[in-house]
Write a structure and sequence with these properties.
Cofactor: pyridoxal 5'-phosphate
Keywords: Amino-acid biosynthesis, Aminotransferase, Arginine biosynthesis, Cytoplasm, Pyridoxal phosphate, Transferase
Largest sheet: 7 strands, mixed
Structural class: alpha/beta
Protein name: Acetylornithine aminotransferase
Shape: globular
Number of helices: 14
Catalytic activity: N(2)-acetyl-L-ornithine + 2-oxoglutarate = N-acetyl-L-glutamate 5-semialdehyde + L-glutamate
Number of strands: 17
Number of domains: 2
CATH class of the largest domain: Alpha Beta
Distance between the termini: 57 Å
Strand content: 15-25%
Pathway: Amino-acid biosynthesis; L-arginine biosynthesis; N(2)-acetyl-L-ornithine from L-glutamate: step 4/4
Helix content: 25-40%
CATH superfamily of the largest domain: Type I PLP-dependent aspartate aminotransferase-like (Major domain)
């Protein structure tokens, strides 16, 4: 009888077996509960990263665990050859809670955006002719990692080495209406924007800009697509950020927090637009799978509650106060901005390019944060993170900043 020897699971194993497109930190998390995470050595961390704005209810929330467990004992997968109950219930809730009449389910934000861009082109191919195919996005935007979505995204570094790029895409400057007005035309089939640019540095659209984009789309008969992959599902303090701005898109994409950690994405749109995706024009093997939809339905029931959304605003103010106190001491931040619990602290000029240093220092002090490019420290915690954990974690983050400033 032989005893199987298990391979030690260490950070070194990543370098041995994984494609090197990521550079993960040294510690490996093994357990999460609420807004706390533990690594292999039993060290505890307070999580203000939220899996990059994904863990809307923290880790292992009882309602999500229950939904997943119950569904796992019944039905995992049937593909889109058949409908399933969790998918239909979730679609009904999303349409009841938003402007949309119709839903397409996918596995991620990139897939949801891919569907949105394809729908926009096909809609105008049917209604306006093939020459109305141009998509306008904004510089510094991020819409995913597929070839189509990196081409629409406004960051050249993500396209490098993957050219030739998809044709028919142009870029304007965010929060610069004149820049958009200069290039939008009757050839434009859609304008796509994040209400708050995420990877581009946590930059909220101004009210004037977002209203102006809507007006220009109406003038040129172009569809307005809101990428709410990062801003959606309560993160802004409204269920979706468009509701906070009072400006309604024609198509909206959502993912990340939608599954609370279980992979799921969705594209929402009006019924008249949805008609262009007829049978066979688009699909997703796993899109709308019962497991993801069951978890998402349970999450949506909680996040859509008015007291949870109000709590997002209150907790955001608490984070900002801590950041302002740190800044009063060190003058390290040029700007503290964002919306709800998507917060960015932009570093002053002398610290430009060093946001990763803050992430690493925070980790050493038991706090998980994010970056949004080289110059912005990002916070995207659970929407229900406890106030005492905010205070405890931000006190630790303050010590990390103290250490960095001291050199």
């Amino acid at each position: 009888m032989t005893t199987e020897t298990k391979t030690p699971v260490t950070r070194a194993l990543f370098d041995e077996v994984m494609v090197p497109n990521y550079a993960p930190g040294k510690m490996i998390p093994v357990k999460g509960e609420g807004s706390r995470v533990w690594d292999q050595e039993g060290n505890e961390y307070i999580d203000f990263a939220g899996g990059i704005a994904v863990s809307a209810l923290g880790h292992a929330h009882p309602a999500l665990v229950s939904a997943l467990t119950e569904q796992a004992q019944n039905l995992w997968h049937v593909s889109n050859v058949l409908a399933n109950e969790p998918m239909l219930r979730l679609a009904k809730k999303l349409t009841d809670l938003t402007f949309a009449d119709k839903v397409f389910f996918a596995n991620s934000g990139a897939e949801a955006n891919e569907a949105a861009f394809k729908l926009a082109r096909r809609y105008h191919w049917e209604h306006s002719g093939p020459e109305k195919n141009e998509i306008i996005a904004f510089n510094s935007s991020f819409h995913g990692r597929t070839l189509f979505t990196v081409c629409v995204g406004g960051q050249a570094k993500y396209r490098e080495g993957f050219e030739p790029a998809v044709d028919g895409i142009r870029h304007a400057n965010f929060n610069d209406l004149a820049s958009l007005e200069a290039i939008i035309s009757d050839k434009t089939c859609a304008v796509v924007m994040e209400p708050i640019q995420g990877e581009g540095g946590i930059l909220p659209a101004t009210q004037e800009f977002i209203e102006g984009v809507r007006a220009l789309c109406d003038k040129h008969n172009a569809l307005l697509i809101f990428d709410e992959v990062q801003t959606g599902v309560g993160r802004s303090g409204a269920l979706y950020a468009y509701q906070k701005y009072g400006v309604t898109p024609d198509i909206l994409t959502t993912a990340k927090s939608l599954g609370g950690g279980f992979p799921i994405g969705a594209m929402l749109t009006r019924g008249d637009i949805a008609k262009s995706l007829t049978i066979g024009t688009h699909g997703s093997t796993y899109g709308g799978n019962p497991m993801g939809c069951a978890v998402s339905e349970a999450l949506l029931d909680i996040v859509s509650q008015p007291e949870v959304l109000k709590g997002v605003e209150d907790k955001a103010a608490r984070f900002r106060k801590h950041l302002e106190d740190i800044n009063a001491k060190h003058g390290i931040f040029k700007d503290i901005r964002g919306c709800g619990l998507l917060i960015g602290a932009e570093l002053v000029d002398e610290w430009q390019g060093k946001s990763k240093d803050f992430l690493n220092a925070a980790l050493e002090h038991g706090v998980m944060v994010l970056v949004a490019g080289p110059n912005v420290v990002r916070f995207a915690p659970s929407l229900i993170v406890e106030d005492e954990l905010i205070d405890q974690g931000m006190a630790a983050f303050a010590k990390a900043v103290d250490q960095l400033v001291a050199g």
